[in-house]
């Protein structure tokens, strides 16, 4: 399959592994930001192919994982309301809230529907004018433009029964939190290719310069990831830092201008709480004044629902790379995909899920 | 009792063009399941006319079956697929092929099938007619007889159009000893063709995606191909049809119950470009997608060439190939040798398959 097979090519993988081996002279710790990259690394056992000097740690780039438990609780509240159709990406269905998850709410009669695109929600709202239709808007800069487009369409159509429960988060402020953390020793970042496809690379230049750290925009196939690692190691070994692009087939330096314009029109940045990490200033999107009437939190008065994560789940330490899933005492015992303590065990981009699915019992 | 083969000599294709028998109603009524005249009409006009044989048409509460001097195998399955018509088949095909293939996986020759409908009030009789014709065609292909049945109707909204249960009885082929814990280190794993076609055909139809790739369900009865294998090479250790949960569930169950490790070779897994593309878009892995016309055959490597030759001589086995082996490593686990030379676990699916967020 074009654009897939060549990036899963054994010969290219072997060439890149050889280049990395030839170049590396000491231990380096690199964080891949995106959960999609974490899953590819585990799925293809890339760590096993790399020299042991290179340690990959897993970052916070799983939007499902970083959604705080109180937002899940708010979605659970909405999903149980008889006049509401709650729509969501499939990933959110199994994420545990304080007491239950959306799959269980649906089983008890809640009208909760999985959609592939936020634009589908507009159609659902149009064909159910007597009911409130809410979209559970979760994601990074990647999914935000599609949500913004749906909100703008709702605005143009004057859809009174459409709203969004919004929990959008942004990557650069999270990277800055990681870099200023006292017990963090990340020496290079693989930035999330799809986020940069939308936002471009310019946001990462000041971060790289301020903290003198290599940041390499990286894709999601084995060859992409190894190319990202090779470029990072090359900068580290040559005592350089900067922003490089190892995913040029998708990422342009300026990003997707039309998508950025849309984001700027519909959203404004806000402080946002991250699961297990806490509030990160300026790390989220909320609705701009012209679109505030589509805020489900305000419409359904959900903001009184607050909650704290279970102490048994160390998702904060997992999401900041301070611990590996296999370091967690609950991993694979008290916490499994069937009975998760936290979102990283059930999200398709969660680090715990990747460890459990691909490697747990081979160690 | 009719010889099965006499049924096959009928002019089936012309019969399949038959219009629905004239009825006063377009839709299923509660009375169609009430046991009265409408039930009788439905059974006689729609079921006996297409599926009838001397055992079924006796109309007893159950079927009297001729004596069979052999060990028997029995299997039951319920079919609730949505949509009921999909590219490559319908719920009627599935109901016959599913039970036939389960019996084949017991090393049996399928003979008799029971057929039970649960219909939703308001279901179109025209659609029921199409499904009955599919059942007739599939039963004919698989050389099995429908010998008893039942029809119930539930109130509108209490069911979803039509559910079907079939139970099958088959004669276990003498000399075969099929069991998941039979597999031995060094055995090879054969599959008879591409994986994931059925599940992706259903999901594409359900999600309203038209991939324009013509992905069709692989639903098919496998008994003719496997009877041929059984007759010529009975040294088969394990058989399994990788239906719900796909290859991953079927092989995980075998590795768990046998305590043996199973290695799959990613480079040998047969997946069509259409299914691969759909899986990439929807975030699925073909290893977890359902099949309805596939069988996994685990046997000693020395017999693999002969069995592959037999399987490939049948339409349902043209693309048969070795995809894995029973290994001495990682006992009780299924793992994959990837195309890039690494190894990882293939875990059993947890919960339902959910599309990914991005």
Shape of chain A: globular
- Structural class determined from secondary elements of chain B: alpha+beta
The main pleated sheet of chain B reads as: 7 strands, mixed
CATH class of the largest domain in chain A: Alpha Beta
Please count the beta strands of chain B (DSSP E, at least 2 residues each).
13
> Roughly how much helix do the residues of chain A carry, as a percent range?
25-40%
Report what the structure shows:
The complex is a heterodimer of chains A (363) and B (358). By secondary structure, chain A is an alpha/beta fold. Helix content of chain A is 38%, strand content 19%. A six-stranded mixed β-sheet of chain A has the order 4-3-5-6-11-10, with helices on both faces. A five-stranded parallel β-sheet of chain A has the order 2-1-7-8-9. Chain B is an alpha+beta fold and 358 residues long. Chain B contains ten helices and 13 strands. Chain B is globular. Mean pLDDT of chain B is 90; it is low at 1-16. Chain A binds chain B through residues 1, 4, 8-10, 13-14, 36, 42-46, 48-49, 63-64, 89-94, 103, 114, 116, 138-140, 142-143, 194, 222, 336-338, 347-349, 356-362, and chain B through 207, 273, 276-277, 280, 282-283, 330, 333, 335, 338-345, 347, 350-351, 354-358.
